[in-house]
Fold these 2 entries.
Entry 1:
Amino acid sequence: MTPGSGPLIEIDGEAATVAAMAPVLGGYGHFTAMQVRGGRVRGLGFHLARLDGATRELFGGGLDGERVRALVRHALASAGHTDGSVRVNVFQPVEGPGSPVAVLVAVRPPVPEPVGPYRLKSVPYQRPVAHLKHVGGFGQGYYVRQAEAEGFQEALLTGPDGTISEGAVTNIGFIAGDTVVWPEAPLLRGVTLQVLERELAAAGLPQTTRPVRLADVGGYDGAFVGNSRGTVAVSGIDATTVPIDAQLLARVESLYEAAPWDPI
């Protein structure tokens, strides 16, 4: 697997076939995406808990974390790498209560950390069943493409009253003095968000959750977005400039960079 090559895809430890892939096209399922370096992942426990919880909600039974780890290790070995961008999809080959789930693992070349700062374009969209990382992100993809065509780096999902929830493929946090503010809205609690919550708490830095609206953005001292690729400062949302020199922004980035990597 070289940069630019296609992904290696396995289903339950076997090379994916067209027939085995067919049920994935039904669009009902969930996934997690992670960056692997040296066979390690930041926040692995959060990824495994996400997969187990969503499998229980969507399919009525849990997903053993050791099974997932073994399948990811197998796919990485098949690809001949300990680094990569790994996506784990969970779906049901045969629909119906009690039917077992299948686990698809796709391994692609590693993705570099984001280079910021980012400018965000707000869009009138919130993901359905936002607490799940479910498949079928057409709305997100549509708005990201629109944002990028206008010179922005990410789309910012908002409700009818301008309440900010999350980025299309990121979570967003705001800086208010010495405090990190997380939006209170329907959103996916991403793994990077959870890692940062843990690291901020361990460092004794205050954080809170409250509604944040587009009209409030100008009153904050900074903002950042993050996903499994890393965190990056936000320099503007629509036509509003956001400061990027808040000391806490650099601290957030350093805390994430120092967060431990867990062996798969």
Entry 2:
Amino acid sequence: MISESINYLRNGEDWVKTVLIGGVLGLLSFLIIPTFLVIGYLLRVVRATMRGDEEPPEFDEWGDMLVDGLKGFAIAFVYFLIPAIVALVFGFAGLIGIVAGGGSDAAGAFGGIVTLLGLLVAFVLSLAAAYLVPAALANYAETDRLGAGFDFGTLRPILTSGKYATAWLTAFVVLFAASLVVGILNVVPLLGFVVGAFVTFYASVAAYYIIGKTWGELHDIEMMDEGETPDEQPAV
């Protein structure tokens, strides 16, 4: 599936234009809105691939894509907010321990242990969120319901399946390989920053191709007919 995912964007007639737009949006991510647009596009990729469409979507209907991206961001934000809160709580508890101990060596050691434990727990929760978010986004993409991103009744059997685990690891490998390429490019000033945005976008599309394709296979989703809405699809 790795080769299929890497070649996915090239199935489109205007794939160079798509990569250029995606890369430019990546470069402008500091403006926030471009980030939402990229997320919206990735959700389109998931929708298309889960229904068996091998032709990548285009950047159009920007307003709808922006709203879609905002919803996708909200789903991911909620999941990653939990480890962030855990890290802050443990860090604050460690600081209180140090202050309450009057800055003694014992208090410092206790505060350090508490903080380290918090970071460890937060790291584990972050990994869990990273594993869960693609499935949550796929469930949202299928139903167009924001609440579907938190429908654990639907998500649980997907998350515990070997097929999804393999797909997630494969997508991770694609993204990790892209990060290595960007790291190498960073040896040349500005090259990694500029070209890296395009490489990252291309790899992200490939990764979400894998997620969408796997979700469609697990849910046996049929390709939508022209003009058909997700609500008209057979229940799964």
